[in-house]
Specification:
By secondary structure, the chain is α/β, with parallel strands linked by helices. It has 2 domains: 232 residues, Phosphoenolpyruvate-binding domains (TIM Barrel), CATH 3.20.20; 56 residues, no CATH class. The chain is built from 14 helices and 7 strands.
Length: 322
């Protein structure tokens, strides 16, 4: 089954699924290895992880598509990607959609902000006119139908948190976007469960959205009851690692090698494979056995290393870094 077809099935089934977000190919591999059914490329995490810049319309379409392609092509599950505001007007949106399709991505969300855009969690957002936004989503649907009708177009509406925006405008816009054929609606930054219910009652079709303003955070079961097709966590795979890296870097600076020794001795709650296993070294060893001459393979026997990708048992992930 095509990954785009699988993603369509996930959005249209009755059971909610989790979109596990990150910003690089390793995050995508972790999402799949951990058992998630779909992965997500966050624009904010990509800008931070790959370029070290804010999610403020600075990253280009080429950079986003290239990174999404790297993520999509190391996993067998579908990848949904942020595509900002489509990187231009309706004409640009056509190329954006088809570029993501050719890169192997299964779906994208396009927001109705102007260029340059802002991260959905940052104040100061604006939205373009309804007429212009409808034209962009119509262009997106036409473009995907030409290459892969199963590719998922997600219309993200930022009107609720934009300057002068409202819940009523959000509903009006999402209805208009759905009318031109988008697959999924995505109201950004709804502030309460009551607002989620109001959108759900007013707008047809699969729905997803960020959850940061819902307090307390809803369970997956409650999200399904509220009408979400996907539980959307844009930084799920990345955020814990950023905090852990920050804390470990400071601990090592303060205590030196003792911090490293204690870190290596910690028993993981969920044991993970060695990093080299996770990125596919055992597969490389299988290819070597199949394709390379015997004299090349003999190098394994007279070389030194702490990791042998051919071995049935290999080191665990939580070993001291070298």
């Amino acid at each position: 089954m095509k990954k785009t077809t699988k993603l369509q099935e996930l959005f249209h089934r009755t059971e909610i699924f989790t979109l596990a977000g990150g910003g690089c190919a390793l995050h995508a591999r972790i999402a799949e290895e951990a058992g998630y059914e779909a992965a997500y490329m966050s624009g904010a995490t990509t800008a931070a992880t790959i370029l070290g810049i804010p999610d403020a319309g600075l990253i280009t379409m080429t950079e986003m598509v290239e990174n999404a392609g790297r993520m999509a092509n190391v996993i067998s599950i579908p990848l949904v990607s942020d595509s900002d505001q489509g990187f231009g007007n309706a004409i640009n949106v056509r190329r954006t959609v088809q570029s993501f399709i050719r890169a192997g991505v299964s779906g994208i969300h396009i927001e109705d902000q102007p260029f340059p855009k802002r991260c959905g969690f940052v104040k100061g957002k604006e939205v373009i006119s309804l007429e212009e936004a409808v034209g962009k989503y119509r262009a997106a649907v036409d473009a995907k139908n030409e290459l892969d009708p199963d590719f998922v177009i997600i219309a993200r509406c930022d009107a609720r948190g934009a300057s002068g925006g409202s819940l009523e405008e959000t509903i009006e816009r999402l209805r208009a976007y759905k009318a031109v054929g988008v697959d999924v609606v995505y109201p950004e930054a709804l502030t309460s469960r009551e607002e989620v219910r109001a959108v759900r009652e007013a707008v047809d079709g699969p729905m997803m959205g960020t959850l940061g303003f819902l307090d307390p955070p809803p369970s997956l079961e409650e999200l399904q009851q509220l009408g979400f097709a996907a539980a959307f966590y844009p930084g799920l795979i990345a955020q814990a690692g950023v905090r852990a890296s920050w804390e470990y870097a400071h601990d090592f600076r303060a205590r030196g090698v003792q911090a490293q020794i204690e870190w290596a001795a910690q028993a993981p709650r969920y044991p993970m494979p060695h990093m080299f296993d996770l990125v596919g070294f055992p597969q490389v060893a299988e290819w070597e056995q199949r394709y390379l001459p015997a004299e090349w393979l003999a190098k394994y026997e007279d070389s030194i290393g702490g990791y042998d990708p051919r071995a049935s048992e290999r080191p665990a992930a939580m070993t001291a870094p070298r």
